[in-house]
Design brief:
The protein has a single domain (14-129), classed as Hemerythrin-like (Four Helix Bundle (Hemerythrin (Met), subunit A)), CATH 1.20.120. Helix content is 74%, strand content 0%. It has helices spanning 15-36, 41-68, 74-96, 104-129. Helix 1 (15-36) runs antiparallel to helix 2 (41-68) and helix 1 (15-36) runs antiparallel to helix 4 (104-129). It is globular. The structure holds fe (ii) ion. Fe (ii) ion binds at residues 62, 77, 81, 117, 121-122.
Amino acid sequence: MAFVEWRPEFSVGVLEIDAQHQRLLDIINQLHDAMKMGSKPAMLAQVVNELVGYTRYHFAYEEKLMEAANYRELEEHRRKHRAMVAQVEGFRDLETSGQATVSLKLMAFLKEWLSRHILETDQRYAGCVAGVKA
Ligand SMILES: [Fe+2]
């Protein structure tokens, strides 16, 4: 069983966003597997970098969609995205400089943050962006 599984209630009703969320879950699972296998720091760093890159891409896509839909809570949502990117990038920098390593604590944080963000914050825009093109 994967560390974090897709759940039907994660769906925001937009195929592209659902696919991007699934990709994020995949990367988190990949990182968890790499950690469990005791992969080398360089390998872990590569997956963390992929997570940072894809998270930025996904958040930008979501924000573009919310903008196109004139979503009222865009700024608050954007703040949450920025805070998350800062946290993951902060970790990446510590890891790159050998001051931190991928841990169960980090994995639990990523799983918890993404699940809650999708279920609570992303679901709020679901009705507003339906049928809108990013
Ligand atoms: Fe979001």
